[in-house]
Design goal:
This protein is α+β, with helices and mostly antiparallel strands and 220 residues long. It has 6 helices and 10 strands, in the order H-E-E-E-E-E-H-E-E-E-H-H-E-E-H-H. The chain has 2 domains: 4-99, Phosphorylase Kinase, domain 1 (2-Layer Sandwich); 104-209, no CATH class. The chain is globular, with a radius of gyration of 18 Å.
Length: 220
């Protein structure tokens, strides 16, 4: 099945997928996705797509000119198999074939009023410690890059785990959870505009706290 899937990727998806990097610091732009492929998401470097005949797998295709695929290949090699992470099933020149993680991001959970149990954060903590034990440095771990599924935590985006500086985002999110995520709030949908205000305020705080642009050098 995996061999046939790779053939479909290279014969049907890649020749007909139109994605571009228009601005270096903005997310890529997806212009056209061939049917029956479905766009799962698009980030700063790549687009993630799924074929309906293979719902347990996804393809991450890097946009022309965007760096990072060799780093991400190495990250998945180091992670190997772990329940909180995806797994790289095949490495192409411009794409990665990955095991699909299903769930709801913590950001989406807040939008929809889906409670986030402490176990979810504990699972993510353990997954990040595992990554450190494999010689990686978890980076850019925030509410849109981690998910929950059946009460357990998952880490979705590992593309920056080879960066050398430690990142405080996850520790800051945990502190916010403990200080502000009250029981009465957990089933109330949070308006998106309010989450945007929180994100903007947090970015200003980070710039103020680290005027040089460096992140705090601290452990997990």
């Amino acid at each position: 099945m995996q061999k046939h899937w790779i053939e479909i990727i290279e014969a049907e998806l890649l020749p007909n997928l139109q994605i571009a990097s228009e601005r270096p610091y903005d997310p890529i732009v997806v212009y056209s996705v061939p049917k029956p492929w479905q766009l799962v998401g698009a980030g700063n470097y790549a687009a993630v797509l799924m074929h309906p005949s293979y719902p347990d797998m996804v393809v991450k295709v890097y946009a022309p000119g965007r760096p990072g695929i060799e780093d991400e290949k190495e990250i998945y090699r180091r992670l190997g198999k772990h329940p909180a992470y995806s797994e790289c099933l095949y490495e192409g020149d411009t794409y990665l074939a990955l095991r699909r993680l299903t769930g709801v991001t913590l950001y989406q959970s807040l939008l929809r009023g889906i409670p986030i149990k402490r176990q979810v954060l504990n699972d993510i903590d353990e997954a990040l410690k595992y990554a450190v034990s494999r010689g990686l440095t978890p980076h850019d771990v925030h509410g849109k890059n981690v998910m929950q599924h059946k009460g357990r935590g998952l880490v979705v985006d590992v593309s920056d785990f080879l960066k050398e500086d430690n990142c405080s985002m996850w520790d800051d999110l945990k502190r916010a959870y403990d200080r502000f995520y009250f029981q009465w709030l957990r089933r109330l949908p949070v308006p998106e505009f309010l989450l945007h205000l929180v994100r903007r305020g947090y970015r200003k705080y980070r710039r103020w706290a680290r005027p040089s642009g460096e992140l705090h050098k601290k452990g997990m």
